[in-house]
Protein backbone atom coordinates (compact mmCIF):
# COMPACT_ATOMS: atom_id res chain seq x y z
CA UNK A 1 0.00 0.00 0.00
CA UNK A 2 2.87 2.38 0.81
CA UNK A 3 6.22 1.77 -0.81
CA UNK A 4 9.31 3.90 -0.25
CA UNK A 5 12.29 3.21 -2.47
CA UNK A 6 15.71 4.73 -1.83
CA UNK A 7 14.16 7.71 -0.08
CA UNK A 8 16.61 10.50 0.73
CA UNK A 9 15.64 13.80 2.36
CA UNK A 10 18.40 16.37 2.59
CA UNK A 11 18.06 19.36 4.93
CA UNK A 12 20.68 21.70 6.34
CA UNK A 13 22.06 19.73 9.28
CA UNK A 14 20.01 16.53 8.85
CA UNK A 15 19.51 13.80 6.23
CA UNK A 16 17.18 10.84 5.87
CA UNK A 17 19.21 8.23 4.00
CA UNK A 18 18.13 5.46 1.66
CA UNK A 19 14.87 4.43 3.35
CA UNK A 20 13.31 1.39 1.71
CA UNK A 21 10.02 0.28 3.21
CA UNK A 22 6.89 -1.59 2.20
CA UNK A 23 3.70 -1.22 4.23
CA UNK A 24 1.03 -3.75 3.28
CA UNK A 25 -2.59 -3.00 2.48
CA UNK A 26 -4.57 -2.74 5.73
CA UNK A 27 -1.50 -3.01 7.93
CA UNK A 28 -0.85 -1.00 11.12
CA UNK A 29 2.79 -0.01 10.77
CA UNK A 30 4.71 2.10 13.30
CA UNK A 31 7.89 4.00 12.55
CA UNK A 32 9.70 4.36 15.85
CA UNK A 33 12.91 5.92 17.01
CA UNK A 34 14.27 8.51 19.41
CA UNK A 35 13.49 12.21 19.17
CA UNK A 36 15.15 13.79 16.15
CA UNK A 37 15.75 10.52 14.27
CA UNK A 38 13.72 11.72 11.25
CA UNK A 39 10.37 9.94 11.80
CA UNK A 40 8.18 12.97 11.09
CA UNK A 41 10.22 13.84 8.00
CA UNK A 42 9.61 10.37 6.54
CA UNK A 43 5.88 10.62 7.31
CA UNK A 44 5.70 14.13 5.87
CA UNK A 45 7.44 13.04 2.70
CA UNK A 46 4.74 10.37 2.21
CA UNK A 47 2.17 13.13 2.69
CA UNK A 48 4.02 15.34 0.18
CA UNK A 49 4.84 18.02 2.74
CA UNK A 50 8.62 17.60 2.58
CA UNK A 51 10.47 17.35 -0.74
CA UNK A 52 12.76 14.38 -1.14
CA UNK A 53 16.18 14.61 -2.75
CA UNK A 54 15.97 11.12 -4.21
CA UNK A 55 13.71 8.10 -4.30
CA UNK A 56 10.17 7.08 -5.13
CA UNK A 57 6.99 6.88 -3.06
CA UNK A 58 4.05 4.76 -4.14
CA UNK A 59 0.64 4.81 -2.45
CA UNK A 60 -1.94 2.18 -3.43
CA UNK A 61 0.09 1.32 -6.52
CA UNK A 62 0.27 4.95 -7.72
CA UNK A 63 3.59 6.79 -7.97
CA UNK A 64 2.85 9.89 -5.88
CA UNK A 65 6.43 11.22 -5.75
CA UNK A 66 5.60 14.29 -7.83
CA UNK A 67 2.00 14.78 -6.69
CA UNK A 68 0.86 17.57 -4.35
CA UNK A 69 -0.40 16.51 -0.87
CA UNK A 70 -4.11 16.70 -1.73
CA UNK A 71 -3.74 14.23 -4.60
CA UNK A 72 -1.82 11.54 -2.71
CA UNK A 73 -4.77 9.71 -1.16
CA UNK A 74 -3.51 10.01 2.41
CA UNK A 75 -5.18 11.41 5.55
CA UNK A 76 -3.05 12.83 8.32
CA UNK A 77 -3.52 13.25 12.08
CA UNK A 78 -1.03 15.35 14.03
CA UNK A 79 0.01 15.36 17.66
CA UNK A 80 -1.63 18.76 18.20
CA UNK A 81 -4.70 17.90 16.04
CA UNK A 82 -4.66 21.16 13.98
CA UNK A 83 -8.46 21.58 13.88
CA UNK A 84 -10.12 24.63 12.30
CA UNK A 85 -10.82 26.75 15.41
CA UNK A 86 -13.74 28.74 13.94
CA UNK A 87 -15.71 25.63 12.91
CA UNK A 88 -17.91 23.27 14.95
CA UNK A 89 -17.13 19.60 15.54
CA UNK A 90 -19.36 18.49 12.62
CA UNK A 91 -18.07 21.24 10.33
CA UNK A 92 -14.53 20.10 11.03
CA UNK A 93 -15.40 16.46 10.39
CA UNK A 94 -17.22 17.09 7.11
CA UNK A 95 -14.82 19.76 5.87
CA UNK A 96 -13.02 17.52 3.39
CA UNK A 97 -16.10 15.85 1.92
CA UNK A 98 -16.91 18.60 -0.54
CA UNK A 99 -13.33 18.87 -1.76
CA UNK A 100 -13.23 15.12 -2.36
CA UNK A 101 -16.75 15.25 -3.90
CA UNK A 102 -17.97 12.73 -1.36
CA UNK A 103 -21.51 13.93 -0.73
CA UNK A 104 -24.29 11.34 -0.64
CA UNK A 105 -25.61 8.56 1.54
CA UNK A 106 -22.45 6.53 1.80
CA UNK A 107 -20.37 9.49 3.00
CA UNK A 108 -23.13 10.50 5.44
CA UNK A 109 -23.30 6.94 6.83
CA UNK A 110 -19.55 6.86 7.25
CA UNK A 111 -19.53 10.20 9.09
CA UNK A 112 -22.33 9.05 11.40
CA UNK A 113 -20.48 5.81 12.08
CA UNK A 114 -17.30 7.72 12.96
CA UNK A 115 -19.22 10.17 15.18
CA UNK A 116 -20.76 7.22 16.98
CA UNK A 117 -17.61 5.08 17.37
CA UNK A 118 -15.56 8.08 18.46
CA UNK A 119 -18.20 9.13 21.00
CA UNK A 120 -18.81 12.58 19.50
CA UNK A 121 -22.64 12.54 19.32
CA UNK A 122 -23.16 14.76 22.36
CA UNK A 123 -20.69 17.42 21.25
CA UNK A 124 -21.34 17.50 17.50
CA UNK A 125 -22.53 21.13 17.43
CA UNK A 126 -19.91 22.49 19.83
CA UNK A 127 -17.02 24.70 18.78
CA UNK A 128 -13.71 22.86 18.94
CA UNK A 129 -11.71 25.40 20.96
CA UNK A 130 -13.06 24.47 24.38
CA UNK A 131 -12.98 20.69 23.90
CA UNK A 132 -10.62 18.56 25.99
CA UNK A 133 -7.42 17.28 24.38
CA UNK A 134 -8.93 13.79 24.04
CA UNK A 135 -12.11 15.15 22.41
CA UNK A 136 -10.08 17.27 19.98
CA UNK A 137 -8.00 14.28 18.99
CA UNK A 138 -11.18 12.22 18.43
CA UNK A 139 -12.52 14.98 16.16
CA UNK A 140 -9.29 15.07 14.17
CA UNK A 141 -9.41 11.28 13.72
CA UNK A 142 -13.01 11.54 12.47
CA UNK A 143 -12.05 14.40 10.13
CA UNK A 144 -9.13 12.50 8.64
CA UNK A 145 -11.14 9.28 8.17
CA UNK A 146 -14.37 10.90 6.91
CA UNK A 147 -12.98 11.11 3.36
CA UNK A 148 -12.13 7.40 3.42
CA UNK A 149 -8.41 7.67 2.64
CA UNK A 150 -6.68 4.39 1.75
CA UNK A 151 -3.84 5.46 4.07
CA UNK A 152 -3.96 7.28 7.40
CA UNK A 153 -0.72 8.89 8.57
CA UNK A 154 -0.51 9.48 12.32
CA UNK A 155 2.25 11.73 13.66
CA UNK A 156 2.61 11.05 17.40
CA UNK A 157 -1.19 11.17 17.81
CA UNK A 158 -1.05 10.37 21.54
CA UNK A 159 1.95 12.26 22.80
CA UNK A 160 0.22 15.59 23.57
CA UNK A 161 -2.53 13.87 25.58
CA UNK A 162 -2.58 13.31 29.32
CA UNK A 163 -2.33 9.63 30.35
CA UNK A 164 -6.10 8.99 30.70
CA UNK A 165 -6.92 10.32 27.25
CA UNK A 166 -3.89 8.55 25.82
CA UNK A 167 -5.26 5.15 26.78
CA UNK A 168 -8.70 6.03 25.48
CA UNK A 169 -7.44 7.23 22.06
CA UNK A 170 -5.03 4.30 21.84
CA UNK A 171 -7.93 1.87 22.25
CA UNK A 172 -9.98 3.82 19.68
CA UNK A 173 -7.14 3.66 17.16
CA UNK A 174 -7.11 -0.09 17.55
CA UNK A 175 -10.88 -0.30 17.03
CA UNK A 176 -10.84 2.01 14.00
CA UNK A 177 -8.06 0.07 12.37
CA UNK A 178 -9.77 -3.27 12.95
CA UNK A 179 -13.14 -2.01 11.65
CA UNK A 180 -12.05 0.06 8.66
CA UNK A 181 -9.23 -1.92 7.08
CA UNK A 182 -7.45 1.38 6.31
CA UNK A 183 -3.64 1.23 6.22
CA UNK A 184 -2.31 3.04 9.30
CA UNK A 185 1.22 4.45 9.29
CA UNK A 186 2.08 5.87 12.70
CA UNK A 187 5.15 7.66 13.97
CA UNK A 188 6.02 7.44 17.65
CA UNK A 189 9.02 7.57 19.96
CA UNK A 190 7.16 5.40 22.49
CA UNK A 191 7.89 1.72 21.95
CA UNK A 192 5.09 0.64 24.32
CA UNK A 193 2.57 2.41 22.05
CA UNK A 194 3.89 0.59 19.01
CA UNK A 195 3.80 -2.70 20.89
CA UNK A 196 0.12 -2.21 21.72
CA UNK A 197 -0.98 -0.99 18.29
CA UNK A 198 1.28 -2.01 15.45
CA UNK A 199 1.71 -5.25 13.57
CA UNK A 200 5.16 -4.31 12.27
CA UNK A 201 7.62 -1.60 13.17
CA UNK A 202 10.64 0.09 11.61
CA UNK A 203 13.30 1.54 13.90
CA UNK A 204 14.86 4.74 12.61
CA UNK A 205 18.22 5.91 13.87
CA UNK A 206 19.73 9.17 12.76
CA UNK A 207 17.81 9.15 9.46
CA UNK A 208 18.38 5.49 8.52
CA UNK A 209 16.29 2.38 9.13
CA UNK A 210 18.09 0.07 11.54
CA UNK A 211 15.57 -2.80 11.78
CA UNK A 212 12.15 -3.59 10.31
CA UNK A 213 10.00 -6.50 11.36
CA UNK A 214 6.99 -7.82 13.26
CA UNK A 215 6.70 -5.85 16.49
CA UNK A 216 7.24 -8.89 18.78
CA UNK A 217 10.34 -9.90 16.81
CA UNK A 218 11.90 -6.47 17.16
CA UNK A 219 10.92 -6.44 20.85
CA UNK A 220 12.38 -9.88 21.63
CA UNK A 221 15.10 -10.19 18.99
CA UNK A 222 16.67 -6.80 18.30
CA UNK A 223 19.55 -7.05 15.86
CA UNK A 224 21.72 -4.18 17.10
CA UNK A 225 22.63 -2.75 20.53
CA UNK A 226 20.84 0.49 19.58
CA UNK A 227 17.54 -1.30 18.86
CA UNK A 228 17.97 -3.47 21.97
CA UNK A 229 18.30 -0.39 24.17
CA UNK A 230 15.50 1.44 22.37
CA UNK A 231 13.06 -1.42 23.00
CA UNK A 232 13.97 -1.41 26.68
CA UNK A 233 16.40 -4.34 26.97
CA UNK A 234 18.50 -2.19 29.37
CA UNK A 235 21.07 -4.96 29.91
CA UNK A 236 23.17 -5.08 26.73
CA UNK A 237 26.75 -6.36 26.98
CA UNK A 238 29.53 -6.94 24.48
CA UNK A 239 30.23 -10.66 24.60
CA UNK A 240 32.51 -13.33 23.27
CA UNK A 241 30.75 -16.46 22.03
CA UNK A 242 32.22 -19.94 22.48
CA UNK A 243 30.30 -23.19 21.82
CA UNK A 244 27.14 -23.11 23.99
CA UNK A 245 28.06 -20.07 26.03
CA UNK A 246 28.78 -16.36 26.06
CA UNK A 247 31.39 -14.65 28.20
CA UNK A 248 30.90 -10.98 29.09
CA UNK A 249 32.64 -8.89 31.76
CA UNK A 250 34.21 -12.13 33.00
CA UNK A 251 30.77 -13.75 33.54
CA UNK A 252 29.80 -16.99 31.81
CA UNK A 253 26.30 -17.44 30.48
CA UNK A 254 24.74 -20.42 28.69
CA UNK A 255 23.11 -19.66 25.35
CA UNK A 256 19.58 -20.86 24.53
CA UNK A 257 20.39 -21.18 20.81
CA UNK A 258 23.59 -21.90 18.90
CA UNK A 259 25.50 -18.73 18.00
CA UNK A 260 28.55 -18.56 15.73
CA UNK A 261 31.80 -18.32 17.70
CA UNK A 262 33.31 -14.84 17.87
CA UNK A 263 32.22 -11.47 19.16
CA UNK A 264 28.72 -10.08 19.55
CA UNK A 265 26.28 -9.01 22.23
CA UNK A 266 24.01 -10.53 24.84
CA UNK A 267 20.92 -8.68 26.04
CA UNK A 268 18.45 -9.26 28.86
CA UNK A 269 15.19 -7.48 29.59
CA UNK A 270 15.16 -5.90 33.10
CA UNK A 271 11.84 -7.59 33.90
CA UNK A 272 13.44 -11.03 33.27
CA UNK A 273 15.96 -10.59 36.10
CA UNK A 274 15.21 -11.90 39.59
CA UNK A 275 17.02 -10.48 42.63
CA UNK A 276 17.39 -12.15 45.99
CA UNK A 277 19.25 -11.36 49.23
CA UNK A 278 19.12 -14.90 50.58
CA UNK A 279 19.98 -17.09 47.59
CA UNK A 280 16.32 -17.62 46.66
CA UNK A 281 17.02 -17.99 42.95
CA UNK A 282 15.57 -21.09 41.24
CA UNK A 283 18.23 -23.82 40.77
CA UNK A 284 17.88 -23.93 37.00
CA UNK A 285 18.52 -20.17 36.67
CA UNK A 286 21.82 -18.58 35.70
CA UNK A 287 23.06 -16.86 38.84
CA UNK A 288 25.63 -14.16 39.59
CA UNK A 289 26.58 -12.53 42.86
CA UNK A 290 26.74 -8.77 43.14
CA UNK A 291 26.03 -5.59 45.08
CA UNK A 292 23.09 -3.21 44.79
CA UNK A 293 24.29 0.20 43.60
CA UNK A 294 21.00 2.11 43.41
CA UNK A 295 17.26 1.60 43.89
CA UNK A 296 15.32 4.06 41.76
CA UNK A 297 11.57 4.70 42.11
CA UNK A 298 10.04 4.84 38.62
CA UNK A 299 6.46 5.34 39.83
CA UNK A 300 4.79 1.94 39.53
CA UNK A 301 8.02 -0.06 39.63
CA UNK A 302 11.55 0.22 40.95
CA UNK A 303 14.71 -0.09 38.90
CA UNK A 304 17.46 -1.76 40.87
CA UNK A 305 21.04 -1.45 39.58
CA UNK A 306 23.37 -4.28 40.59
CA UNK A 307 27.07 -4.62 39.84
CA UNK A 308 28.32 -8.17 39.29
CA UNK A 309 32.06 -8.27 38.55
CA UNK A 310 32.41 -5.35 36.16
CA UNK A 311 28.91 -5.74 34.66
CA UNK A 312 26.09 -3.38 35.65
CA UNK A 313 22.67 -5.07 35.58
CA UNK A 314 19.35 -3.29 35.80
CA UNK A 315 16.33 -5.19 37.11
CA UNK A 316 12.71 -4.09 37.56
CA UNK A 317 10.83 -4.95 40.76
CA UNK A 318 7.31 -4.08 41.82
CA UNK A 319 6.83 -2.34 45.17
CA UNK A 320 5.64 -5.46 47.00
CA UNK A 321 8.56 -7.66 45.89
CA UNK A 322 10.99 -4.91 46.81
CA UNK A 323 9.44 -4.48 50.29
CA UNK A 324 9.24 -8.23 50.91
CA UNK A 325 12.82 -8.88 49.85
CA UNK A 326 13.98 -5.73 51.70
CA UNK A 327 16.61 -4.98 49.07
CA UNK A 328 18.50 -1.75 49.66
CA UNK A 329 21.39 0.10 48.19
CA UNK A 330 24.71 -1.52 49.20
CA UNK A 331 23.21 -5.01 49.87
CA UNK A 332 24.86 -8.16 48.58
CA UNK A 333 22.35 -9.88 46.26
CA UNK A 334 22.10 -12.70 43.74
CA UNK A 335 20.96 -11.86 40.22
CA UNK A 336 19.20 -14.71 38.41
CA UNK A 337 17.56 -15.32 35.05
CA UNK A 338 16.46 -18.20 32.92
CA UNK A 339 18.85 -19.07 30.08
CA UNK A 340 15.84 -18.76 27.76
CA UNK A 341 15.68 -15.03 28.51
CA UNK A 342 19.12 -14.43 27.01
CA UNK A 343 19.12 -12.79 23.59
CA UNK A 344 22.42 -13.20 21.73
CA UNK A 345 23.21 -11.33 18.53
N1 LIG B 1 12.24 21.93 7.80
C1 LIG B 1 13.36 21.56 8.40
N2 LIG B 1 14.53 22.17 8.14
C2 LIG B 1 15.68 21.80 8.74
N3 LIG B 1 15.77 20.80 9.64
C3 LIG B 1 14.63 20.14 9.95
C4 LIG B 1 13.36 20.49 9.35
N4 LIG B 1 12.42 19.66 9.84
C5 LIG B 1 13.05 18.84 10.71
N5 LIG B 1 14.36 19.13 10.77
C6 LIG B 1 15.39 18.46 11.59
O1 LIG B 1 15.47 17.11 11.16
C7 LIG B 1 15.69 16.26 12.29
C8 LIG B 1 14.62 15.18 12.32
O2 LIG B 1 13.37 15.81 12.60
P1 LIG B 1 12.02 14.98 12.79
O3 LIG B 1 10.98 15.95 13.21
O4 LIG B 1 11.76 14.16 11.58
O5 LIG B 1 12.42 14.02 13.99
P2 LIG B 1 11.48 13.02 14.77
O6 LIG B 1 12.20 11.70 14.78
O7 LIG B 1 10.11 13.04 14.22
O8 LIG B 1 11.55 13.66 16.23
P3 LIG B 1 10.37 13.86 17.33
O9 LIG B 1 10.14 12.50 17.91
O10 LIG B 1 11.01 14.80 18.29
O11 LIG B 1 9.20 14.45 16.61
C9 LIG B 1 15.69 17.13 13.52
O12 LIG B 1 17.02 17.40 13.86
C10 LIG B 1 14.99 18.40 13.05
O13 LIG B 1 15.46 19.52 13.76
UniProtKB/TrEMBL annotation:
Enzyme class: hydrolase
Keywords (A to Z) from UniProt: ATP-binding, Hydrolase, Nucleotide-binding, Transport
SMART domains: AAA (SM00382)
GO function terms (MF aspect): ATP binding; ATP hydrolysis activity; transmembrane transporter activity
Top-rank lineage group of the source organism: Bacteria
Domain ABC transporter: 2-231
GO (cellular component) term, any one: ATP-binding cassette (ABC) transporter complex
E.C. numbers: 3.6.3.-
Pfam families, sorted: ABC_tran, TOBE_2
GO biological process annotation, one example: quaternary ammonium group transport
Protein name in UniProt: Molybdate/tungstate transport system ATP-binding protein
Organism: Desulfobaculum xiamenense
Lineage, top ranks: Bacteria, Pseudomonadati, Thermodesulfobacteriota, Desulfovibrionia, Desulfovibrionales
Amino acid sequence: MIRMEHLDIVLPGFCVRDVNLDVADGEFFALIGPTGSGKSLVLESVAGLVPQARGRITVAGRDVTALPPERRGVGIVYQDNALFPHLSVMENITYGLRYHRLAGDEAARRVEWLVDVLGLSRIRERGVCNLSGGEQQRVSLARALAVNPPVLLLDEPLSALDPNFREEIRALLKTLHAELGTTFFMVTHDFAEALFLAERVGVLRDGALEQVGPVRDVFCRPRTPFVAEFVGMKNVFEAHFAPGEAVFHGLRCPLPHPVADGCGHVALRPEDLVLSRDGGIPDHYVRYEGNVRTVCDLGFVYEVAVRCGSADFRALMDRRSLMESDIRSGDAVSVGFSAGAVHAF
